[in-house]
Amino acid sequence: MKQHMRQRISLLMLIFILLSGVISCASPERKSTLMSTNQTKTLYIAAGTKVYCVRETDGSFCWTHDFKEPVDQIYATSQNVFVQTTAPALYALASKDGLLQWRHPLTDLLPSQLFVQGDLVFIGAYPTGFMALTAHNGAPRWQTSVPITSNSIGFIGSEGDSIYGYSDGTIYALRADDGHIQWKKEQPYTLGEDLLLMNGNLLIPDINGEKVIELRASTGAVGATFPGNQVVSSQDFLFLSRTASQKRQTSQELYALHRSDQQELWKKTLNANEQIRFRKGMLGERYLYVVRIDRNMKTVLQAVDLKTGDNAWTWTPPSERPDIDPFSVYYSNEHLYISTHNSSVPYPENEKSLLQALDSQGGVRWKQALNERILRVVLPV
């Protein structure tokens, strides 16, 4: 009897030990899965009437939100994805699951560069001018009327307590918390696609004047002026393109300047039948990524060495989707995200896109096909 009891006790102890081992092994597994889910990096795609959340690691979809109306602008943070549609309206989606948080109707559609700072969303809208909404619920915070006669209005960035915007070629500095205009520069610029705020200076491309104007962010005073129509900036260098005439032929030049003294670092002249396009999202740690377009509208992507201006490598799009759109090229964390389509085929095939992730040497990491034309590729800021 005693021996039988000892056997039962031994058996119970063995079961307890085994169960303890299972529990102690299972808990870290659950924790690891949860952490990897929370740490998954994502990018957001505006395409047609939809916004897609895509995992950076493999291109798989996290979620999709269909607005049933064309998407016009998109801006992403770690908490929300803000979307302007042609309805017109501004929406806020939760970044983690794409659920609608709020909707704010707009009186008229103007393609406006959105900007978010803290708990404020800044947007330009006709006939209001500049306006700010509370990011977490969409409640209006302030409105500042400015003249609007064309379809060019939006925000550039922020520094300190100021937010910087533009409308009809005029540059504005506004107080972020109430919209009070601190200064404005009324020169009639014909603005390029990317206006930059860097190191206390605004860089304003004037595409008709073939120059880039530097404005002091604190006062609006004009600083240096550079020949060019496109510009991106790192901490130490400016990278610009300009039109050059040689032997009765017009061509583009890509060149780099030291920010400190405007001394030229390098210069590269393109063939007369080629053009290049680049934007602020195409500047990496080692390369400036540019889209080269020949006279037949064939596109390739080139990685330009920041120190020398030499071509490090060239990437040619797949033949079924050969057209690169510079607005859907975005660099982040040693990887380049790029969208291609085929404009030479009939509808609806010409609306289909192929999103691809390239590594630092131009190798394709993954591909993701979409049935809509990709408008923008953005990462949370």
Automatic annotation (TrEMBL):
Residues 39-147, 249-370 form the Pyrrolo-quinoline quinone repeat domain. InterPro entries: PQQ_rpt_dom (IPR002372), Quinoprotein_ADH-like_sf (IPR011047), WD40/YVTN_repeat-like_dom_sf (IPR015943). Pfam families: PQQ_2 (PF13360). Gene3D superfamilies: 2.40.128.630, YVTN repeat-like/Quinoprotein amine dehydrogenase. This is Pyrrolo-quinoline quinone repeat domain-containing protein.
